[in-house]
Amino acid sequence: MKNTISYLFLGEVLVFLALFSSFAAASDPGSLQDFCVALGNANDGVFVNGLFCKDPKLAKPEDFFLSGLNIPGDTHNPVGSNVTAANVAQIPGLNTLGISMARIDFAPYGLNAPHTHPRATEILVVMEGTLYVGFVTSNIGMVNKLFTKVLNKGDVFVFPVGLIHFQFNIGRTNAVAIAALSSQNPGTITIAKAVFGSTPPINDDVLAKAFQIDNDLVNFLQSRFWTPSG
C-alpha cells in the first residue's frame, strides 16, 4: 500500500515538474543586466541577441534617445504611406529590451500594404484621421478569417504576431498612427514585394500556378516591383 502511495505521489510530482518546465520555457529569460546598448563596431564588445554590446560604463543618454518622430514622413510614393521606425537600428539602447515603435503617415487613401512582422505583435493607435485596418488568420481549419475595423482618432487595434495585416486611410485628409511592437527588431515582410520583387525573382511557373494567373501577368507584376540594385 505504501509503495502504491509513493508511486502515485511521485507521478504527481513529475506531472507538476513537466507543467512547470513547459511554462518556464514559454517565457523569456529575465535580464541579468540593466541594459545592453547595441554596438556597431565589434571591437571590445560582447555578442548578445544578434548584436554586440557596449561596455555599460561607456553608455550615454544618446544611446536611449531618438528625435524627429513628430516630423511627417514622405508619402509621395505609389502606395501613399511612409513608416518611420524607432527600433534598435535607430535607438541602440533598445537592444535586448524587446520593444520598438513606429510612426505611420498616410496620404489621403494611402495604404500600408499587407505585410507581416515575423517577430512581433503590434498595437496601433490612430493619432489623426480614419483608418480601415485588418488582419487575416492562418489557415486554421482551412479558413483564413479576416478581422477588420474602422478606426478613428484615439482608437486602438492589435495585430497578432506573424499575421498578415494592413492599414488603409479611407479619409480625404492625411492620417497618422503610432505603432508599438513587442520586439526590438520586429522585421517586416511586405507580401506583394516579397513575392513579386524578390532577388532573384521567383520562377514564373511557380507564381502562375500559386496565384492561378498566366505568366504574362506574373512578368508584369514583377516589373512593378523591380528596383535597381544598390
Could you list some keywords that capture this structure?
21% helix; 4 helices; globular
Report on the structure:
The protein has helices at about 1-25, 190-195, 205-210, 215-225, and strands at about 40, 45-50, 50-55, 80-85, 100-105, 110-115, 120-130, 130-135, 145-150, 155-160, 165-170, 175-180, 190. The strands form 3 sheets. The chain has a 5-stranded antiparallel beta sheet, with no helix packed on it. A 5-stranded antiparallel beta sheet has the order 9-8-11-6-13. Strands 1-3-2 form a 3-stranded antiparallel beta sheet, with no helix packed on it. Helices cover about 20% and strands about 30% of the residues. α3 (about 205-210) packs across α4 (about 215-225). By secondary structure, the chain is of the alpha+beta class. The protein starts with a helix and ends in a 6-residue tail after the last helix. It has 4 helices and 13 strands. The model is unreliable at about 15 and about 20-25 (pLDDT under 50).
> Approximately how much helix is present in the residues?
10-25%
Unreliably modeled segments: 13-17, 19-27
- Sheet having the most strands: 5 strands, antiparallel
The helix/strand series, from N terminus to C terminus, equals HEEEEEEEEEEEEEHHH
Beta content comes to: 25-35%
Categorize the overall geometry.
globular
Strand order of the largest sheet: 4-5-12-7-10
